[in-house]
Amino acid sequence: MLQTRVVTTEGVGFSVFFAERYEGLVRACILLTGRAPEGEDLAQEAMARVLERWDRVSAMDNPEGYLYRTALNVHRKALKRLAVAARRQVLRDPPDDSDATDSRLDLLRAIRSLPRAQREALVLVEWLGYSAEEAGSMLGIEPASVRGRLHRAREGLRQQYGGSNE
To answer: N or C: which end of the chain has fewer CB within 10 A?
Structure first.
């Protein structure tokens, strides 16, 4: 006889939460990082942090949202560490003067000049292909807020680079 269970968020053990959410988290993290090994590491780190706080997280209205915010925060911290290391490397070995390098550095400067919230929306929606609803869930904000941030990010880049309003 097949048994079915009614699962509520509050009564769910971490192992059930993990089993239900891990695969989707890994896919999202791979998209966020661009590489499978880094995405898997990020997903594991986020799950470990949720496990450490499971008593509190399991009582939340949206434990999955907390999980994705945790993954985003871990990723942001890793990117900050990489950016510091890259700046130190550039100071030691300045990049060559090729046009491609100049264009890439100009684009990176323009993106870095955007406020963090706009950069996150731009990366999640434009580069990673998430919908405003999915990005909003990850960022813990409404989809309309994601669209507003994305609009302001595009507008900021247009002002810096020029370009059409399409």
So the answer is: N
Map residue 56 onto helix, strand or coil.
helix
pTM: 0.53
Lowest average pLDDT, out of 32-46, 61-75, 83-97, goes to: 83-97
Taking the CA atoms of residue 142, residue 54, residue 116 and residue 166 in that order, the dihedral angle to the nearest 10 degrees is -40
Which structural domain, as residue segments, surrounds residue 21?
13-94
Is the Cβ–Cβ distance between 58 and 12 less than 8 Å? yes
Do 67 and 101 share a domain, yes or no?
Answer: no
Distance CA 135, CA 133 (A): 6
Q: If you compute the radius of gyration of the chain from its CA atoms, what whole number of angstroms results?
A: 19
